[in-house]
Amino acid sequence: MNFINKIELNSSLWGCPDGAHMLAVAALAEAKGQILFVARDDARLALMRDALARLAPSLDILVFPAWDCLPYDRLSPQGALVGQRIETLARLASEPAALTANTIVLTTVNAFLQRVPPQSYFAESSLHITVGQTIEPSALATFLVNNAYLRTDTVRETGEFAVRGGIVDVFPPGHANPVRLDFFGDDIETMRSFDPSNQRSIGKADRLTLHPVAEFRLNSQTVERFRTSYLATFGATASRDALYESVSAERMHPGIEHWLPLFHTEMVRLTDYCPDWPIILDHEAQAACVVRFEQIADFYEARADSGDDGSSPYRPLDSEALYLGADELEELSAKQHVCSLQRFAAPDGSGSHQDAGGRPGLTFTTAMARGQSAVVEVVEAMQAEMTGQRRPIVIAAASEGAAVRLDELIGEQMGPGHVTRIDSLNAAKPGGIYIIIWSLDAGFQSDQLLVIAEADIFGQRLSRPQSKRGKGDDFLREVSALETGDLVVHAEHGIGRYDGLVTINSAGGDHDCLHLVYHGGDKLYLPVENIELLSRYGSGGSGSGGSGSDAQLDKLGGAAWQARVARIKGRVRIMAEQLIKIAAQRHTAKAEPLLATDGLFAEFCDRFSFVETDDQLNAIQDVIDDLASGKASDRLICGDVGFGKTEVALRAAFIVAMAGYQVALVAPTTLLARQHGKEFTERFAGFPLKLGVLSRMTSTSDAKQIREDLASGDVQVVIGTHALLAKSLSFNNLGLLIVDEEQHFGVGQKERLKEMRGDIHVLTLSATPIPRTLQMALSGVREMSLIATPPVDRLAVRTFVGPWDGVVLREAILREMFRGGQIFVVCPRIDDLQRVYDRVRKLVPDARILSAHGRMPAAELDDVMTKFADGEADILLSTNIIESGIDIPSANTMIIHRADMFGLSQLYQLRGRVGRGRQRAYAYLTSDPNRILTPQARRRLEVMQTLDTLGAGFTLASYDMDIRGAGNLLGDEQSGHVREVGVELYQEMLRQAVDAAKAGDVKDDEDTVVEWTPQINLGLEVRIPEAYVPDLTVRLSLYRRIAGLSDMSEIDAILAELVDRFGTMPDSVRNLFAVIEIKQLCKLSNVEKIDAGPKGLSIGFRDNQFANPEQLVGWIAAQQGRVQLRGDHKLIIKQTLPQASGRAPVCKGIVQELVALV
């Protein structure tokens, strides 16, 4: 059936919001035949490709992507991407008659505007091979070399080939796997595809077409053509260029593709390959063309104006040689039919406009406002739809796992059989409800169809990683993998050695168990569902003995472990008591609840010019709850640079100050204090609050006045450096202390911060908190909110590591200047500034450069920073004084001179100064080309290049903690305790002791429970089979995660993830989840053990105790003899359960009844 209005090609097609535009393109392609679709960018192309594969499976889809490098770049595009381009061009050039009537070419604006080799190139550079054909292996090898294939020993990547006697392996572009040709003499005897990872054959073939790997060839003819054209274009002196020399020697050169026209007699347009095909333009594609024209012109000018600073020169070709211009595009539009898609309905009053009928979809705001999934609302809407228009209802899931879970959730509300899985939209019928895998950010509707996206139901995609708040033990278990030979700690049996994962048959069912070896060779097999009883002895490379031999293995069943644990518990309890002299006063002492004034607070929040992320909103709510709790709080806000920590502090400060208390914000540097002062002043303008800034930039008279006003209460908010920590400074009524980047304060300053904490609220902001701060947060001494979600439209900073290269850096500076941005150039020492200034001035003589360092007079430094922030300079050359908190959204390129001299945290913080807006940012970490880096420096730079994703600050701090050890809260004297029981168990003991102290619950050491877990024996196979998850490390990681699940939302997410990653779950994995659910219920009802068999089941209570004995007796009596209480206090339930598969739901139901009795 048709899901949109009947449409014809026109200059504009209206009624095509996102999602509906995919249906429109599919309908036009199926109705009109061969079509060229131009997507706005790569992401839109990928969405269209995936959608068409499911919406219109009869279409023959060809993809033509753009190069993934900048115009006039020194980098070459990726080989796999070039291979895809060549595969499409070759099919269009050599097989036009073989193309189906419903062929559609998907490309992007950038690819569409780029010229391509002529069709004749593929006729000259393609080779068709069949089984039985005669061709000399040496001639084949020559052809491959001439067409840019790389000869290797083993073929693994696209564009490689290998010759071993009578066998030739080759990996042509556009193929999913390489092909192995087996020769008998000069005859091709067999042809087989093979897996490049293990080199094993996986299928047979009888024909193969070899296309060139690159969009040019390096042979004597093309090299001569290049040499002649290059010298004719750039002059005789160009013969000394590295590019010219490489090509003359028939060698590839980085970025050689940007001189592609010099290898060909002519260059053509993509449309010359499909001259009569209609062109459909994506939303905003025309605007993207304008942006691309400007970008091409900017980069050409940057290259053309570049001088010779001793590096290899870059001689750019005219843009007309490589790209289409605006005039040519307009001329093309007159020749071929061009149709632009429009999101909105057609304008009224004209019947000539084509309207596909697509409109925005339904919204489910009630559940979203409560932070819940909208499954119930969606079901109600679908039921109303089924009694009304009876349009097909299609639920679009982004992944297989999400589709499975959505099916289950909707089935729970509507009952089974209401939802049908479909692979193609053509299978949807009126009045039906369907689930299809289709990646959409929002649903849409037409008169003929209703589409509900996964994001409409959950607020975000179910399959996306969720940021979780975990206890310290959860986190520590995540950061280190368990390997055979590692020392581990069992909560009940002590230190043993992990000796691998084994499968044991118990009561008729296979169980995966961890094999543990103890003193004297004693063995213990721990079922994987009880893996939470296990912890690592060390912290994975921290020096704590993760796999070392410095710890004595305990004896199974011996008393030494229990005695040792009891002794450590006592010492940990004393340590916790010392901690709460400062910490517990805040948690247990009463404080006046501080509530946000609804109207004024909303007005203040409205001044925030960005959209808050979910994590940011959660952190803000955490702080609001802290302030309203009536207890002094101490919270760590850990969020990556530029993720919005300051906004959390602003809102907290507003609430406290408006409630009549004072707020102090302490920053580590004068520049950061100045910036905070400026931001707070702007945001607090118009409210009845007085602000002050105390730093070395504050005049003596102003500083004196601010101190007096703080003492009298006339200043409500003060921002400053360590001057605020002076004991001589007194506050009238301090209510909130905000500490920014605590890791930059010295030991004495940190001790002063501890003293100040007392009974006030404390908020610490940090992107890379020091390990001790992180451990305290994980221990529960300080609460932690994690902001791991980047702001909307934020892009990761692209990081380049290498020696100082004047040409590359000049290009980087010009690139930033041409897009109206600014550049940071950072040096490790003040002495380096003048030398680097001279080099930068030589690279870009027209740039406006300012210098700044920490020894400048305060007024001069303030003047420099103000000018740069106001856009009066292009480049700020400075030391690392800009490391903390400087926020200049227009500065999006950073060059670090001698990056090897900075520490890891410093490099991360410095890089965080760029990329704070919506533009792509670049960081160049350079080193001295004449010096050999130390292994440590090289490792730091490698880590920086690895941590190139948004939100890596917490990862960096955790990585640092794992390398250096978790540190200690009160001193080194406690390190022996860690050695005696292991870092994870010690962490758990500390958490329990702190929790008890906060609750005022002082127990004897014997009463403090470390951990217990129910034992569930159902006779079921409970395991993740190796055939399902082959990698042992991944299986162990999954076991640890599954054992730690605590609520259904987490179970939903990991169920979806498993199906996505590994396919349909076998019964043994579903059994594992069933056991985990039963275990959670058992803990609530104090059930320690369940044994189930064909005749029923027995239930044992922990310490033979049940929380409500009278209710239990009444429940047993109501069972009419079905349930008995034996003399050993075990419940015996008589019920015939011959099939093991039926035992889990019965056990779950009974334990749920016991939970209800508690």
TrEMBL record:
It is an enzyme of class 3 (hydrolase). CDD domains: DEXHc_TRCF (cd17991). GO terms for molecular function: ATP binding; damaged DNA binding; DNA helicase activity; hydrolase activity. The keyword DNA damage applies. Residues 626-787 form the Helicase ATP-binding domain. Transmembrane segments: none annotated. Residues 808-962 form the Helicase C-terminal domain. Its EC number is 3.6.4.-. Keywords: ATP-binding, Cytoplasm, DNA damage, DNA repair, DNA-binding, Helicase, Hydrolase, Nucleotide-binding. The keyword Ligase does not apply. It comes from the Bacteria. GO terms for biological process: regulation of DNA-templated transcription; transcription-coupled nucleotide-excision repair, DNA damage recognition. SUPFAM superfamilies: CarD-like, P-loop containing nucleoside triphosphate hydrolases, TRCF domain-like. PROSITE patterns: HELICASE_ATP_BIND_1, HELICASE_CTER. It is found in: Cytoplasm. InterPro entries: CarD-like/TRCF_RID, CarD-like/TRCF_RID_sf, DEAD/DEAH_box_helicase_dom, Helicase_ATP-bd, Helicase_C-like, Mfd, P-loop_NTPase, RecG/Mfd. One of its GO terms (cellular component) is cytoplasm. NCBIfam families: mfd. Couples transcription and DNA repair by recognizing RNA polymerase (RNAP) stalled at DNA lesions. Mediates ATP-dependent release of RNAP and its truncated transcript from the DNA, and recruitment of nucleotide excision repair machinery to the damaged site. In the C-terminal section; belongs to the helicase family. RecG subfamily. In the N-terminal section; belongs to the UvrB family. HAMAP family: TRCF (MF_00969). This is Transcription-repair-coupling factor. It comes from Puniceispirillum marinum (strain IMCC1322). The lineage of its organism: Bacteria, Pseudomonadati, Pseudomonadota, Alphaproteobacteria, Candidatus Puniceispirillales. The gene is mfd.
